Amino acid sequence: MIRSTQDGAAAAPAGAETDSGLPDPKIRRLTMITVALTLFLASTGQSIVSTALPEIVSDLGGLSYITWVVTAYLLASTIGAPIAGKLGDMYGRKIVLQFGIAIFLVGGWIAGAAWTMPILVGGRIIQGFGGGSLIVVAMAVVADLLPPRERAKAQGMLSGVFGVSTVLGPLVGGFLVQTVGWHWIFFVNIPFGIAAFTVLSRTLKAPDEQMKHKMDYLGAVLLMALLSSVVLIASLGGSTLAWSSTPMLVLMAVAALAVVGFVLAERRAAEPVLPLDLFRIRNFLAANGVNVLIGMAMFGTISFIPMFLQVVKGVPPAESGVYMIAMMAGLISLSFTAGRVMTYTGRFKFLPNISTVVLAAALLMLSTVGPETPLWQITLNLFFVGVGIGPTMSVGIVAIQTAVPREHLGVGTASANMFRLTGGSVGTSVFGAIFNHGLGEHVQPLLPQVERVQDITTTLVAELEPALQGQVVQGFSDALSPLFLVGAVASALACIASLCLEEKGLGPSEPLKRDVEEAPTPMGQRIAAAE
């Protein structure tokens, strides 16, 4: 973590600073590029595997484990993010980033070398812990390197990197599978990870002060139990496990007990892993409320639009992913734009106010599409979905980072990712349940030979005689339309949540110095100052 020395003197070359307390501009630029690369590696780790799943299953077998290849990474990154954020606050971003890169690469190597599906899933769990740590700590580094206004532009850039990886990951994964094999979707990150480790080791500075910290192990374990149970309930409920099944009831009981235990533990902890006082900060609550709802709309759209294109519009699977580029183009362009607007105006509240309305309107339009809707119109709707999502990602991070006490920047930044991923898990589960209900109502009656909704496949639909196929395709469209309507409602609620954001001027574009000799202030007073 980069901090000014007490006398302002120049530090060692690895952390060379100017008189303002910030590192040399060249060092800062190199560090930001490396941080962006680190974020790209971690976010690509989630998306790159999607196009390789059929090849992995045909090679390793274990079809029953296929969903866990994705869920394991999502689960591990969700529970690892807040803990890594807290460790970054306590011990500095540098060492946490170093460990995060190492864990990510080790997990990737295990997954790439796996000879059975359980070993692959184990590697994905390890990789997910590293990936979740890298995402949140990389974004927190920005707050250490830059003053608030410059920080806004950088967060817009990093949100754009996240969007690029979402599109590029499946494309790169498909190319590697077709050329050198699925193992290389995990091995390809190793040289880039080593390069990022080397550069960050030379450019990031460790904390000047050496303070003893007391890690909140009980709070960390309870938070892991809570997030794990919530993600598993959302991912498995209604699909792999029936809602009334014993394992699902056990997961619900674990979630309830973990909530109670976590609150009690955090009240007593000397250095809580997720301070409860943060929930008294208006912007922390409002921004994360937006994150949950946008996560639902974003991940739900990404999950089900390819199915709509393939089944309803007859687009080949390889091409269906290309249409998602329109969505990511809108996300990336508006994320960059939002960062620049915040930098030049010093204001941010109006951005999510407007963008969530655009998102709700775009999803409302998607809920009306059907077999006769031209592809250009669907592509345009997807572009505006991205336009609606883009500003919320960078604004959410900036709103939290400018509101929480500086010593909690890491855990505050981690909360944004944690709530967005949790919203995505819950949203995808809800959307899946609605879709399955729609299939049972609109499609299954047309196919009496099909006993279960899960047995309806795209291959089955393609083999139907034309008249019946047209009816089934319309049934698929009718089953998918409510999903986008629910997404529009979630976006409208996100708009209401964004209205609760408190406008905090980002101040001039000048460095923020931190006096390391400053006397400690009680947590309650620091929160009151942040409010």
Automatic annotation (TrEMBL):
It is found in: Cell membrane. One of its GO terms (cellular component) is plasma membrane. The lineage of its organism: Bacteria, Pseudomonadati, Pseudomonadota, Alphaproteobacteria, Rhodobacterales. The keyword Membrane applies. It comes from Pseudooceanicola marinus. CDD domains: MFS_Azr1_MDR_like. It comes from the Bacteria. The chain crosses the membrane at residues 30-53, 65-84, 96-119, 125-146, 158-177, 183-204, 216-236, 248-265, 285-309, 321-338, 350-369, 375-400. GO terms for molecular function: transmembrane transporter activity. It is a multi-pass membrane protein. Keywords: Cell membrane, Membrane, Transmembrane, Transmembrane helix, Transport. This is Multidrug resistance protein 3. Residues 31-506 form the Major facilitator superfamily (MFS) profile domain. Residues 1-23, 509-531 are annotated as: Disordered. PROSITE patterns: MFS (PS50850). It holds the Pfam family MFS_1.
